Amino acid sequence: MIPGPFTTAVRTAQAVARRGLSARDCLEQVHDQGNRTVALVVTALSFFGAVMVTIAYAQARKITGNLATVGPPYLELLVRDFGPLTCALLAAARCGAASAAELSAMAVNEQVEALELCNGDPYSDLVAPRFVGALVAVPLLCILGTSAAAVSAALTARYVFLTDGMAFLDPRFIDGWDLLSGGLKALLAAAWIPLAASSRGLAARGGSAAVGEATTDGVVVACVGSIVLVAAVGLLFQLLGV
Amino acid sequence: MSAVLAALGRGTLAAARAAGQSALVLGRTLRAAPRMNRRELLRAFGHFGWESLGICLWVAVVIGVMVVVQSGLYANRFGARMALGWASGFAVTWEFGPLLLGVVLAARVGARNAAELAVLKAGGQLEGLSGISLDPYPVLLAPRWVAITASTGMLASVTLLVAVCMEVVSAWASLGVPPRVFTGSMADALGWQDVLGGTTKALFFGAAVATVSTAVGLRASGGARGVGLAAASAVVRSSFAIFGLDLLLTPVLAAGLSR
């Protein structure tokens, strides 16, 4: 039976408590999952920001007649929901695929067993650095991505639709609850992605098809889990009325 | 300054190399398509199409709810609930539906295709096929390309349909907009051209994912790290290809279908 992300989390915590954690490996993972995902997240969110303004323009023409009026609620939506969700999905896709493929290739080539024979522990040596790396990288990616979407929306409004672009950077509707909701979503997704991808990767057995299967499973579980966690936090805040 | 120029030059060369490799893969795949292995094609349809249905339905639910939340925020603040169906339907069929589906399939299908091909390449199995006079294009690569592209088109139709249904449910449950009002507003302003536009975009995105992930997988080198990098590169490059194609296709399709 394949150990799930929760079992992987418990085993990783036990292994780290027993054997410690390599700061160098963690930094390497921050670089791998953070720096190497920046281009994807910034490009995608800039693109989505511009698309959302184009759609908002079509709506505003019909509803209010003025695009600038939808700027402040757009920024609130971006910080609270759209930014964390999209960044988490992109991070789950890129980092989840990389972790699941790398660990599954190691597992099918018996490198994980070799590590254990050399007195290593796959949970503390392979999973824990990925967990720490994601915990640092994904929230930072969310901040970068959300900022990119806001700036792109402002520039699109200003230079394409020739309206007040600064309205899309106006934070008047954003309060502490919005920031807390967005931050919590990013942190939960960051914790889930490496655990989901690593649990599928380490369980791979067989040849190239098993690597493909594990990669797919890792990405799917990471993406779906992130969506569910983001939706659960959104629902919780809605129930709390904030 | 010279360091910036050098980095820019390196980036441009790398992008040109990647585009050239993808174009070569596409050309060879299309040439091999009439001779492709039918059995592998069926297997690929199962792996890349049928098995992706679950995540596509998830994506449809998320898009439906997210777009209604987004549009509803504006509609509530500006007292324009009657236009909610049109605004949400437009956003799903033209932009968010095809785009999010493309990105998710780049992750699910593109990463798998690239990882499998990378393992075969790193293990020398692709060279082994050539060694026994078997061309990997009709045997292995063309069936995957056709299956990924065709599956994306079919999955897009299902995803857009489910997303629109979810919008109706979500608008009724969260904003109290009656389904008849919502669908009426949608039917007034949207036509078959909008659905066709979104599905056509998704079909092109599928072709991009298939081409890019195959090219990345065939270029992989090294061991487990190479496989991981190939999977990640497939996701990143496919996503970039999707965004680029979206910029090109949206005005072309909008102009073509509105005639």
Taking the alpha carbons of the first and last residues of chain A, their distance comes to 41 Å
Number of domains of chain A: 1
Oligomer: heterodimer
Structural class of chain B: mainly alpha
Uncertain segments of chain A are: none
Runs of chain B in which pLDDT lies below 50 for 5 or more consecutive residues are none
| Overall pLDDT confidence of chain A | 88
The percent of residues in helical segments of chain A reads over 70%
Q: Which band does the percent of strand residues of chain B land in?
A: under 5%
Report the strand count of chain B. Answer: 0
Number of domains of chain B: 1
Rg of chain A over CA atoms, rounded to whole Å, is 20 Å
> Major sheet of chain A: size, sense and barrel closure?
none
| Coarse shape of chain A | elongated
Provide mean pLDDT of chain B, rounded: 86
First CA to last CA of chain B: what distance? Answer: 49 Å
Shape of chain B: elongated
* Strand coverage percent of chain A: under 5%
Helix content of chain B: over 70%
User: Which chains make the largest contact?
Assistant: A-B, 61 and 59 residues
Give the topology string of chain B: H per helix, E per strand.
HHHHHHHHH
